[in-house]
Specification:
This protein has 112 residues and is mainly β. It contains no helices and 11 strands. The strands form 2 sheets. Strands 2, 4, 5, 6, 9, 10 and 11 form a 7-stranded mixed beta sheet that branches.
């Protein structure tokens, strides 16, 4: 079964950090561009960050300098390190693979 499974979400105070992980099964991430999206209540899903097969990264303006996307193709994993979290980062975070393929999402809640 081809799937992406996110983990690492939770409740954190503003200024804190979280690291999201995305584990893939049935698909080789090294053959795909990967990314993270998020969707806050009442809002559309939006891009957070992407990383190409070659390792080039792109970040949405609101997270630049605070979030870091990375990939470990040997483990078939993608990560999102989130630092200096703000209440406006509260959302369900989704792992994305080009194709596309989506994970089920993990909730991130940042309290003020």
């Amino acid at each position: 079964q081809v799937q992406l499974v996110e983990s690492g979400g939770g409740l954190v105070q503003a200024g804190g950090s979280l690291r999201l992980s995305c584990a893939a099964s049935g698909t080789l991430l090294r053959l795909n561009h990967m990314g993270w999206y998020r969707q806050a209540p009442g809002k559309q899903r939006e891009l957070v960050a992407t990383i190409t097969i070659g390792g080039t990264t792109i970040y949405a303006d609101p997270v630049k300098g605070r979030f870091t996307i990375s990939r470990d193709d040997t483990k078939n994993m993608v990560y999102l390190q989130m630092n200096s979290l703000k209440p406006e980062d509260t959302a369900v975070y989704y792992c994305w693979r080009s194709g596309p393929l989506w994970g089920q999402g993990t909730q991130v809640t940042v309290s003020s």
